[in-house]
Amino acid sequence: MNEYNEKRLEDTIEEYLISENGGYTKSTDSDFNAELGLDTEKLLAFIKTSQEFEWDKFANKFKNNPEKNFLLKMDEAIKKQGILKVLRSGFKTRGIKFRMVYFKPVSSLNDIDRINYSKNICNVVRQLHYQVKGNNSLDMVLMVNGIPLVTMELKNQFTGQNVENAKHQYRYDRDPNEAIFKYKYRSLVHFAVDVKEVYMTTRLQKENTFFLPFNQGTNGSGNVGGKGNPVNINGFDTAYLWEKVLQKDSLLNIIHKYMHVEEVEKTDRKGNQIKKDIVIFPRYHQLDVVTKLIDDVKQKGSGDNYLIQHSAGSGKSNSIAWLAYRLAGLHNDNNEPIFNSIIVVTDRRVLDSQLQDTIYQFDHMDGLVEKIDEKKTSQHLKEAINDNKKIIISTIQKFPVVYKEINGSNKTFAVIVDEAHSSQTGEDARKLKEALADKEALLEEYARLEGLDEEQRDLEEDKVVQELISHGKHTNLSFFAFTATPKVKTLQLFGHRLNDGTYRPFHIYSMRQAIEEGFILDVLQNYMTYNTYYQIAKKIEDDPTLDASRAASAVAKFQSLHPHNISQKVKIIVEHFDTITRHKINGKAKAMIVTASRLHAVRYYQALVKYIKENDYKHLDVLVAFSGTVNDDGIEHTEVSLNKLNQYGYHIKESQLPEYFESEDFNMLVVAEKYQTGFDQPLLHTMYVDKKLSGVKAVQTLSRLNRTTKGKEDTFVLDFVNDAEDIQKSFQPYYEATILENGTDPDILYNLKSDLDDYKMYLSHEVHEFAKVYYSTSDELKNMGRLTNHLQPAIERYNEREPEEQNQFKADLQSFNRLYAFIIQVDRMFDKELQEFYVYARMLQKILPKGDIGKIELDDKLVLEYYKIEKSFTGSIELEKTEGMVSAIKGGSGGKEQKKDPLSVIIEKFNERFGTEWSEADKVLMQLESRLLKSDQLLGLGKSPDRKTFDDIYEREAENVIADQYFENAEIFSYLMRNPDAKQYLIAEMKEKVYHAITKR
User: Fold this and answer.
1) What is the pLDDT of residues 148-191, one digit of tens each?
2) Cα–Cα distance, 418 to 282 (Å, whole number)
3) How far is CA 493 from the centre of its chain?
4) Quick one: what percent of the chain has pLDDT higher than 90?
5) What's the rounded Cα separation, in Å, for the pair 939 and 649?
6) Helix or strand or coil: residue 585?
7) Phi, psi at residue 532, to the nearest 5°?
8) Which residue, 139, 164, 503, 766, could crosslink 491 as a Cys pair with Cβ 3.0–4.6 Å?
């Protein structure tokens, strides 16, 4: 027999599992009851020896065959509650409570729990015959107390079979109706294993059985890599499965503290609510990140920060729930709790309930999870923390209201941050730290560093010092920050600093691995870009001199909002959606149109609705999403006023939009900022982008497409603004791991402060007097008048300066304030003078005059002469398999020198950038449009012409203009006269632009 056959793999697994490290004993299937799916002998032996008193009571109640009656009662409990709940909580019958398994105690102080744990009977059985009728066998089954928990089918590449054959075997040769396979009745998880890879499922459904990869990644779990496993020079590459996961203590820990039933509620196309449940077994990287975090905290105690860079598709919500629960029960070597409370900071409502429901399955203790949702106030948060509630869920915005009333002295906290982003470096985050900090210990540290004697150490009333001690890291606080796209500030705040000065995530599950494992789709695989070319001219004789930057923005706005530009792009969007997208995902695919502003969103929405109606696309309908009210030519629009169910005229509420977009009534969503992050809609297949995107914003926006669902095989992006190279640069840092090459030097603050001093806008005594008033009360509004008076001298000096100096000062002031707010999250500087200047500078920035920088409006001064849109790229944007390095914040000024140019020069520069070599055909088209816009017949229709009347007159006038132009370009116009189809196409191309131009006059 070949030494590499399937049996050799079985031998290796069994050899480890029955070793002292493995914790199992070898057994056979001789006592396995296929009809019940149990080894009844071992089950009854466990009950009788571990719960002798309970068994005697039960046997006295059922004197006639107590064994049979016990099995019946247990079976009833499992059918009603599910195997997982009965394993975890046991079951009751006739007032008698039976435990089906004992779990390892959190603390070693409880001898009874430790002894009970040792009474578990854990067996490994090879070639277990499981059929009531038949002789099929499973390669390997793991049992605890006679109950099968894990099944395995093993394959070996050296014999020509692999994990795919094992999956096939489960799907087509293993009947889910056999007792051992029944969902939520017996086995909890099924593994398909070969020497290279592992896959798992918690439910057999014949050919519909869905397997998840259970691999480490090519460089090991928590490291950068792709799908698969690292080479194991000491054995099989999949040895981690039996050595780290199926080992007795590990498996029972997973059942006790990880596995749970997740309920999913969906609405079908008829509006019916459908509830489904899924038994969750943690993926390998989830087990790994929680285990490594727990081990590190147990070794070091509180006080460290941890950055977890886990991609979309990583199952972050479950990872957070498991981590919160494990941290809540974590003890040090002296059996003391390491944390008083675990605080989960999130803005996701779905995480609130999911975390609460998940933890409740592990532990029924009342009040273990305290949810501070929108129905509760900051006072509830204060009470929960002061009362030492174990797990608290809240938004960060609730902390500033009560941060001074929370007592964190002599307490330790773990703060889990769901989606770490820039809010963790602002004032709310600082006040969270100030609320939870051990103030007594920090005041002692400050006094020691300042060399204060005992008489000088009464610092509790010094409010500047009270604020200073909230800065930096705290030995009583540990932060656990989860994000897929860490920014520079996030890396320096939460990342681990290595000896080479770089900051790295503690644990990584990369975008690359998530894509390769099939948990998300690669949104860059099908990417198309368009280039838009245009030439703009003045239509006024004057040539005013304008601020070059703001005027260029006005020209760009004129072009981007021009009806011809939008109508041409809308035509491309609708025809692409109708031809390609709507047939995707079994006809359920949806699209998002990303626009540059709220006004763009309104105009796009109106143009889409109009084009769809005029071209009779009955199966297409559009929604729009934006905040607030948009005024367009005197007409006010809101999201609600535009979104309605056409057949009923019912306006869709803002909160209802996601639900209606998911329905079959709508398939396109126009957005301006809203729904570009955090929106989870798996039916989104295509994105049309007409907005500049870069960095994290590009990744977050395009990643709305990456969710998987049944029938979704790919995605598509059509981009009118960004080129493929820019998108590649945006995604590259987040494809594998994001590394900060070095941290921001806190001393930059002193350089910025020196630059601000040089403006001579303020005097040092003014800053100090302001700070005295500021810190004299906790109510900033109460002293607003006095505070403003102390700022007045600086404001007067500011008003006397030239606009260029004003702009530069304001930019430098903003740069200092932003950098200081970030640095004090990372470092504790204990600099009272700098802190006083910061509170002064922050208020001064808010109150400085805005200046006369009104918008420059050029719409009535410009005309679009030439326009052309061309496809420039189609294909896949490839990312390199390498770590992404980002640079530290330098703290430079954001100010720009104000430059003025004549309008003609501004337009010339714009045309140089966005123009092209215009063909004769381009020029002819523009000539025709220009002539039509001078037609007395068309102009006589007024600003609101009847559409049918316009169409009739337009067709006639277009024919006349083409005939009149013959002698100016005989070659092209003779071609048009010979080819009626080409002529009609040209006339149709011009119609909408001419119509919009006339109605806008």
Assistant:
1) 999 999 999 878 899 999 999 999 999 999 999 999 999 999 99
2) 19
3) 19
4) 52
5) 35
6) helix
7) -110, 125
8) 503
Q: How far is CA 292 from CA 299, 503, 507, 941, in A?
A: 11, 18, 9, 75
Q: Which of 20-29, 507-516, 542-551 has the lowest mean pLDDT?
A: 542-551
Residues in the chain: 1001
Rounded-to-integer distance, Cα 924 and Cα 793, Å = 63
Quick: pLDDT tens for 924-945.
Answer: 666 677 777 777 787 777 767 7
Q: Which CATH number is associated with domain 527-741+904-914?
A: 3.40.50.300
Structure confidence at residue 982 (pLDDT): 67
For residue 926, how many other CB atoms are within 10 A of its CB? 19
Instruction: Cite the residue boundaries of each domain of the chain with CATH code 3.40.50.300.
Output: 282-438+474-509, 527-741+904-914
3-state secondary structure of 144: strand
Using DSSP bridges, classify how beta strands 668-671 and 590-595 pair: parallel, antiparallel or unpaired. parallel
Beta bridge partners of 92: 97
282-438+474-509 belongs to which homologous superfamily?
A: P-loop containing nucleotide triphosphate hydrolases (3.40.50.300)
Picking from 210, 209, 192, 204, the residue whose alpha carbon sits closest to that of residue 156 is 192
Q: For residue 450, name the pLDDT band (cuts at 50, 70, 90).
A: low
- DSSP labels, 827-861: -----HHHHHHHHHHHHHHHHS---S-PPP--GGG
CA distance 175 to 154: 18
The phi and psi torsions of 234 (rounded to 5 degrees) equal -100, 5
pTM over 0.85: yes
Tokens coding 549? 């930057």
d(CA 351, CA 418): 9
Quote the pLDDT of residue 707. 95
Q: Which residue shows structure tokens 């939009």?
A: 657
Tokens of 561: 């909002």
Measured between alpha carbons, how far is 450 from 47 in angstroms, rounded to an integer? 65
Q: In angstroms, rounded to a whole number, what is the distance separating the alpha carbons of residues 262 and 321?
A: 12
Q: Cβ contacts of residue 321 below 8 Å, gap of 6+?
A: 354, 355, 358, 359
What residue spans of 684-747 are helical by DSSP H? 695-702, 724-731
> Closest by alpha carbon to 719, among 563, 569, 878, 914?
569
- The SS3 assignment for 193 reads strand
The answer on pLDDT for 790 being more than 80 is: yes
**CA angle, 23 then 24 then 28, to 5°:** 175
CB atoms within 10 A of CB 284: 22
Kindly give, in sequence order, each residue whose CB lies less than 8 Å from that of residue 735, ignoring residues fewer than 6 positions away: 510, 511, 512, 879, 880, 881, 884
In this prediction, residues 569-590 reach a mean pLDDT of: 94
What is the helix, strand, coil percentage profile of the chain, to 5? 45, 20, 35
Inter-residue contact 561 to 599 (CB < 8 Å) = yes
* Two structure tokens written together for 785: 């008048």
Helix (H) / strand (E) element for 349: namely helix 349-362
| 244-254: average pLDDT | 97
Per-residue pLDDT band at 956 (split at 50, 70, 90):
confident
| 3-state secondary structure (DSSP) of residue 498 | coil
Mean pLDDT, residues 341-349: 82
Whether 921 has a pLDDT exceeding 70, the answer reads no
Q: Are 668 and 623 in contact (CB under 8 A)?
A: yes
